[in-house]
Amino acid sequence: MRPLLEKKIPLALVFIIGIIMTLQYFVPHPISQTIYDNSLMWDRAIASMAYIMAIVSFLRFHSRRLKDKNYAPYSLVAILSFAAMVLIGFIGGTGSDSLFQKMYDNMMVPLQATTFSLLAFYMSSAAYRAFRIRGIEATVLMITAFIIIFGTTTIGNYVPKMNEIVEWIMAVPNLASKRGIMIGVGLGVVATSIKIILGIERNWVGG
Amino acid sequence: MILKTILFILFLSPPRVFSPDGTGKKLTIVLDIPDAIRPQITTLNLVRECSDGKIDTLDILPFLKAYTDNSLSHKKDYRYKILAYSNGNLIFESEWSEYTRPTAKWFDKDKLPLFIAMMLFTIIMIYYIAQARANKPLYLRPIAGLEAVNEAIGRATEMGRPIIYINGLTGISDIATIAALNILSHVTKRAGQFETRIVVPCYDPVVYTIAREIVKEAYTTIGRPDLFNPDDVYFATDSQFGYAAHVAARMVREQSATNFFMGYYFAESLILSETGASTGAIQVAGTDSVAQLPFFVVTCDYTLIGEELYAASAYLSREPLLTGTIKAQDLAKLLLVAVIVLLSILSLFKVNITLGLF
Question: Which CATH code is given to the segment(s) B2-93?
């Protein structure tokens, strides 16, 4: 009974729905659109159930870590913040003038911006490592990076032909490499989809 | 006076109406209004009459040259007429157009080249799968990043520290996430054989539920269900930088020996991978996010670039059916490169044989 419920039925469902949704992409008829819209509704319904499980996971994870003195302060803050936002949202609503929204705008957004701003420092250290001359490739990378950085600064604008050189690097070798990767990705996406639809790739049901 | 009469006649002619696509929900109305008249128009209305007798007036922008009416029914006919106003005074009124029905088609002809390409690729795949079934040996080129997976797990085992595995920051509808989950299964099985702990903080609730089951099943498959710890596969947060902060903190506090970054990433990629690099962990990344690839290349020991992420599952399992699909990918790529080179050469001689497909 277990293999039937855990493997055979999910694989059969994926096969049937995978074929239907693939064909749906090529069929513009309203019936096809209705199938697509309904599938999106199913997606939302499943996601909302998954959120309940995710919240349980979040609370269980942090409540267990309360016993560990190394992690307890952080987990306590996480649980209290979660509880406070839920209570404030339920009691005062989530409208644009609500306390919930104000807390989001004045606490959550600055915290996210702070973490985001750390990127500048991480970029510096990553760039240092990337531009160390260790071989021919690293040398080419460093020279190219120098041209791009210099060409996009104010001083670079005064150097004749610099803008054209920067544009050429971005539009020809850079774009060509990107497109090469994108073609491979596109084929990989189709191959993975076909493998899953045909049931060749089964790791998602335990192999 | 003559100009006004000509313009009046032009306006009297009914608007042209056609079905723009096969969705059966849209009609496009061409607003043939001479440019000389447009500055006078302050309000432009389109009156729509349905075959069931219902009449609606649509208020549209005076500068529009065509208007697509959405949310129609493919079982009814519609006709339109234009009303143009200048400061509230009706200056022109067109005749009613013919009754037109939105066309509902069963195949989108514009997508025919894509359909043919997809079918061709599927046939190539099925051919190679058949080859694999017949036990014909298929050569796979070595991929350094995948060769390093076992080495990375081994290092974590030797050091007695955990592995951190991240499935990317997109939902389950993204194929990169599915590819990451497939690799997670292999990594968990291998880590489980050495009793090495694997920690999977999740960003998306749906991905969390699937990742949890995959890890549980992987341990069961190798006969070690006791190794599954529900606290090691958990939902962290769905805030992008909150997640980055959480994972970075875990890397620093637990000093993970190995970090895997598989799937699709955004601006947080560098925060995650640079933190991991600073702790001295061996890092393997795999993404199809072209914008984030340079960051991973710089900060990680091995990086799976684009399609290698999708090949990983087959490469790690060495299952003949899966390796057959990689050969099909390679052949399709070869065909595409040949077409691109051929068309590029022809374009140098100003020969265009693309048949409007590109």
Answer: 2.60.40.10
